[in-house]
């Protein structure tokens, strides 16, 4: 993403400030809610990695470092704290921060949970319930797998047309084009396009030896140790790409399954891909959700999230983030300097520095 010199200088000035020891009250004050969003924890450059590298939010080492810094500079809260505050209970502490994860990947339990437990930090994981306890591979991970495994050096790809697949850069470019195109069509069209892609690339669907997603025993252990598990739909469709009945089922059935499995009410929701509409938000509320999280760029002022608790922005993290970029994001500097607070962030925030 090209940026002007003035913006770049402002970001670098913020970076200099961050490197001097950015604390949670820099720029954003003490009454803002910071909600970090992670997906996978692991090393996307690990040899043999065949799935989507963009889904990785931090390496295990970086996640540990981030959590220690967060613990020292913010007051980490959980979903129950937000609800109690909404109901007229205790005020939130200064510099409140929520740690969230989307999807329910196995590494959230195996790699992130021990760090959280060791630091006594609460968190919330939003689960795509149809993947929990299965060997399922989500379509974005399958997309990377198919393009890595194909022996074709070119193909007429669904939705985007003829593309070279000669060499890693061409395959990465094709994957990014397909990723955007697949997110822009209806869910039924996406399913058909993925079936077509397997055929034109001559590669079967992946069957991982180790499941990518956690099982329900892991969910039970998490819930017993201050890590809430809340709904993120059943099959992770982009809810604005399906009809109203399907959207309502995805929301209500995932909420019911989590409540049944955990014995705890489903009260918070994360929109797949961060996309929602007025109708989707209404369905979330009707399913009993009191909080819902987007991928619009936070942090968010206290009065704003309380006025719109079903549209809470978050701070997206990426495994390619430098240490300074992480602190810039967490302190609200990136959203402030770019003027995109409460809006979807640029595609690659990491290109700023």
What labels would you give this structure?
single chain, 353 residues, alpha/beta, TIM Barrel, 2 domains, two-stranded parallel ribbon, 16% strand
Summarize the structure.
Helices cover 42% and strands 16% of the residues.
What is the SS-derived class? alpha/beta
So what's the oligomer here? single chain
* Residues in helices, as a percent range: 40-55%
Ends distance: 11 Å
Whole-number mean pLDDT:
90
Instruction: Please count the beta strands (DSSP E, at least 2 residues each).
Output: 13
Any overview of this molecule?
This protein has 353 residues and is α/β, with parallel strands linked by helices. The chain folds into two domains: 5-134 and 219-352, Glycoside hydrolase/deacetylase (TIM Barrel, Alpha-Beta Barrel), CATH 3.20.20; 139-201, no CATH class. The protein has helices at 5-19, 60-73, 79-86, 106-119, 139-149, 168-184, 187-201, 216-223, 244-262, 278-286, 302-307, 323-330, 333-338; strands spanning 32-38, 40-41, 56-58, 75-77, 96-103, 123-127, 154-157, 161-164, 227-231, 268-270, 291-297, 300-301, 312-316. The strands form three sheets. Strands 1, 4, 5, 6, 9, 10, 11, 12 and 13 form a nine-stranded mixed sheet that branches. Strand 4 (75-77), helix 3 and strand 5 (96-103) form a beta-alpha-beta unit. Helix 1 (5-19) packs across helix 12, helix 2 (60-73) runs parallel beside helix 4 (106-119) and helix 5 (139-149) runs parallel beside helix 7. It is globular. The chain starts with a helix and ends in a 15-residue tail after the last helix. The model is unreliable at 348-353 (pLDDT under 50).
């Amino acid at each position: 993403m090209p940026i002007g010199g003035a913006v770049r200088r402002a970001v670098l000035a913020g970076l200099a400030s961050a490197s001097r020891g950015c604390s949670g009250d820099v720029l954003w004050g003490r009454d803002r809610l910071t909600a970090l969003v992670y997906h996978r924890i692991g090393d996307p450059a690990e040899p043999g990695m065949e799935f989507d590298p963009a889904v990785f939010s931090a390496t295990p080492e970086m996640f540990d470092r981030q959590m220690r810094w967060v613990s020292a500079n913010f007051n980490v809260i959980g979903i129950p704290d937000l609800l109690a505050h909404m109901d007229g209970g205790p005020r939130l502490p200064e510099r409140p921060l929520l740690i969230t994860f989307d999807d329910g990947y196995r590494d959230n339990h195996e790699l992130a949970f021990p760090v959280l437990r060791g630091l006594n930090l609460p968190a919330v994981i939003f689960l795509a319930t149809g993947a929990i306890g299965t060997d399922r591979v989500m379509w974005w991970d399958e997309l990377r797998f198919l393009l890595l495994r194909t022996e074709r050096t070119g193909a007429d790809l669904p939705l985007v047309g003829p593309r070279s697949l000669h060499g890693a850069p061409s395959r990465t470019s094709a994957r990014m084009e397909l990723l955007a195109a697949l997110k822009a069509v209806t869910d039924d069209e996406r399913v058909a396009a993925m079936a077509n892609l397997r055929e034109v690339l001559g590669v079967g669907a992946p069957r991982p030896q180790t499941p990518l997603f956690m099982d329900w025993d892991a969910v039970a252990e998490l819930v017993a140790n201050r890590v809430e598990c809340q709904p993120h739909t059943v099959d992770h469709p982009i809810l604005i790409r399906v009809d109203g009945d399907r959207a309502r089922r995805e929301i209500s059935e995932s909420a019911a399954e989590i409540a049944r499995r955990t014995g705890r009410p489903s009260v918070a929701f994360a929109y797949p891909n961060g996309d929602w509409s007025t109708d989707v938000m209404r369905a979330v509320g009707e399913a009993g959700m009191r909080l819902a999280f987007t991928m619009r760029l936070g942090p968010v002022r206290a009065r704003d999230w309380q006025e719109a608790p079903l549209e809470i922005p978050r701070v997206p993290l990426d495994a390619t983030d430098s240490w300074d970029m992480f602190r810039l994001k967490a302190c609200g500097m990136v959203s402030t300097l770019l003027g995109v607070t409460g809006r979807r962030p640029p595609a690659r925030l990491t290109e700023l520095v």
